[in-house]
Every structure is written in structure tokens, then in C-alpha cells.
């Protein structure tokens, strides 16, 4: 029997409270990369990736996306800072950190005359994993490659080769998967098939980090969005919050009679005329689109009608993630 005197529960300190939160599966702190030429590819990047999420890293060409991924995966040495992968330092505990990661590059560099089965099985051995043909079979079936297992890589379509890249990355059972431009150059139908594969991987517990030029790819799949530009992280935000906070909505009124100018009674509203005065446009923050936003729009329409303006049609349009991304990069360039 336990005879210890019961004590009142201690109040959690701020440090203990933070410690209670789940640790990120990847923690990047002060990461920098300067090449011998003097070019600074990364500038003190801080970033945390949460376990089990799909994180999309967006940025224009030369922004630092590939450099960042290459450092995390141990392919490039950082100039400063640190990367911790599931508790393992990427430099001092390289093997353990790298074993947690699967990397899907943009190009398939395996022997063109090797079979799908052999190239995927070989990838598992590179990480010192014991042969496990059952796992390889599961991966190939999940990626719809089982019927192609005896085919030489050279005989595969571009889409099937992309699937082989993912199979190779999953061969050693990683918990984290990096996808570098996974659907670049792939047709729309196959791109959507790949999205479904990525969702299934996330559902199985794999953390997904992808870089992409296709904004709709991030908008379709990602839980969080990170934007990198000029070697710096511009922002990291949950996708839904990003769309709400940085997006905008547009109310368009198609007028019965064209206007030469916005009436003075409406001058205090951000209204503009388009299409030779036949269209009246009102732009407002998406964050106003809640209940209070609808009230203000109703009030605006009442004011417009009170000013004697009649319209035959109206519609609203919300800015896409692409609009937000372009504006962010433009503001910081």
C-alpha cells in the first residue's frame, strides 16, 4: 500500500504547459545556407512541421524550396542553424534522422532497364532494412503498380514513373515523406490521381511535405501553407485561416443602366465602375464574410438602391490561394 501523504497538484509552469503540446515531427531553427559564390539561399529559417499533416511549401523559382528540403534530407550542408527530425539531430544523429524520411525527387534516376520490383526493393536495402517482400507488395499495390512490377522502368509512362518514385521513397517505411514538385508536367487527370495517393498516405499516418508550382495542388490538399521567398519564410498559416485572413471577396453588380461615375452618396464605399459603367464592383476582406459581413453587404445594396441605381444581376467571387500567393510575393519583392 502506498503510504505517501497526498499533496495538492502542483500548478503547471509555463515551460511544462509548452512541453505538454505534441512535439513537432520536424523542428528547424535559424537555418541558413550561403554558397561559396556568396549567394544566400536561406536566411535564418524557423519552421515546425506537425506530425500527420500535409504541409505545402510555396515559392517562386529560386526562393529556397529545394535547398531547404535538401538540407533537411541531409543532401546539402547548412551554413548555420539546426534541423531535428523526430527528436534526432540531422547532423549529429544523421542516420536515425534520415531513416525517418522518404524523399520523392522530380526525376527518376534508376537504371532504365531495371524492373519496378527490383528498383523498389533495392531502395529498401539502401537504408539497411532487412528484406520485406510483403511490405514492397503492399506499397506497389497501394500505388497501382503491382501489375507493372515486372516491367522495366523504360517501358513506363511518365505517370507510372512518378508512382515508382513514391514507391522507392516508401520502401524503407519512413514516417515523413517529402514530395518535390510531385506532379510537374503531369496531366490534370493523373495529377488528381496522385493527390488521392497522397491523401491515403496521410491517412495511414505519414507526414507529407510537398513543394509545388501548382497553387491548386496546395489549395486542394494542404492542411497548412508555408510561403518562402528570397530564402525567408514569409508566413506559415493554416490554409483555411490564410484564405480567410488574406483573401478578399468581390461583389459585382450588373447595372440596368450604365453610370458615368459613382454617385457622391456612395463615395465613402470602395466602389469602382467597370465595363464602360455597366458593372459596379465592391471589394472587401474575406474576413468580413461572416454574419456581420452579410449585414454590411445588405446595407450597401440598400444604399445603392436608395441612390436610384438598379441592377439586373449580382454575384460574389472569393480570391483564390493563387491570388493570395501572388500578392504576398509581390509585396515582399
From TrEMBL:
GO molecular-function terms, A-Z: ATP binding; ATP hydrolysis activity
Q: Has UniProt tagged this entry with the keyword ATP-binding?
A: yes
A Pfam match: ABC_tran
All copies of domain ABC transporter, residue ranges: 26-255
- Region of interest: Disordered: 1-20
Record InterPro entries: AAA+_ATPase, ABC_transporter-like_ATP-bd, ABC_transporter-like_CS, ABC_transporter_ATP-binding, P-loop_NTPase
Tell me yes or no: is Transferase among this UniProt entry's keywords.
Answer: no
Q: Where is the signal peptide?
A: none
Alphabetized UniProt keyword annotations:
ATP-binding, Nucleotide-binding, Transport
What is this protein identified as?
Answer: ABC transporter ATP-binding protein
Amino acid at each position: 500500500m502506498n503510504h505517501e501523504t497526498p499533496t495538492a497538484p502542483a500548478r503547471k509552469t509555463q515551460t511544462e504547459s509548452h512541453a505538454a503540446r505534441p512535439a513537432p515531427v520536424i523542428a528547424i531553427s535559424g537555418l541558413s545556407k550561403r554558397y561559396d559564390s556568396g549567394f544566400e539561399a536561406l536566411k535564418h529559417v524557423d519552421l515546425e512541421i506537425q506530425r500527420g499533416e500535409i504541409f505545402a511549401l510555396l515559392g517562386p523559382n529560386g526562393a529556397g524550396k529545394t535547398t531547404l528540403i535538401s538540407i533537411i534530407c541531409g543532401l546539402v550542408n547548412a551554413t548555420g542553424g539546426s534541423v531535428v527530425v523526430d527528436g534526432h539531430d540531422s547532423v549529429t544523429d544523421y542516420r536515425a534522422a534520415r531513416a525517418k524520411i522518404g524523399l520523392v525527387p522530380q526525376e527518376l534516376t534508376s537504371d532504365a532497364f531495371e524492373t519496378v520490383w527490383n528498383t523498389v526493393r533495392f531502395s529498401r536495402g539502401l537504408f539497411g532494412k532487412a528484406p520485406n517482400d510483403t511490405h514492397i507488395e503492399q506499397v506497389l499495390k497501394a500505388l497501382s503498380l503491382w501489375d507493372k512490377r515486372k516491367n522495366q522502368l523504360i517501358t513506363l509512362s511518365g505517370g507510372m514513373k512518378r508512382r515508382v518514385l513514391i514507391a522507392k521513397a516508401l520502401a524503407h517505411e519512413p514516417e515523413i515523406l517529402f514530395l518535390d514538385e510531385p506532379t510537374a508536367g503531369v496531366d490534370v487527370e493523373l495529377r488528381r490521381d496522385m493527390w488521392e495517393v497522397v491523401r491515403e498516405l496521410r491517412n495511414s499516418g505519414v507526414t507529407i511535405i510537398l513543394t509545388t508550382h501548382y497553387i491548386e495542388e496546395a489549395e486542394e490538399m494542404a492542411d497548412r501553407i508555408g510561403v518562402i521567398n528570397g530564402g525567408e519564410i514569409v508566413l506559415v498559416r493554416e490554409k483555411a485561416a490564410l484564405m480567410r485572413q488574406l483573401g478578399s471577396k468581390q461583389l459585382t453588380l450588373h447595372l440596368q443602366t450604365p453610370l458615368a461615375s459613382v454617385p457622391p452618396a456612395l463615395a465613402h464605399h470602395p466602389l469602382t465602375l467597370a465595363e464602360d459603367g455597366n458593372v459596379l464592383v465592391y471589394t472587401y476582406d474575406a474576413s468580413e464574410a461572416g454574419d456581420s459581413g452579410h449585414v454590411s453587404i445588405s446595407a450597401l445594396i440598400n444604399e445603392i438602391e436608395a441612390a436610384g441605381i438598379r441592377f439586373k444581376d449580382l454575384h460574389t467571387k472569393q480570391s483564390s490561394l493563387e491570388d493570395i500567393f501572388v500578392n504576398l510575393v509581390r509585396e515582399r519583392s
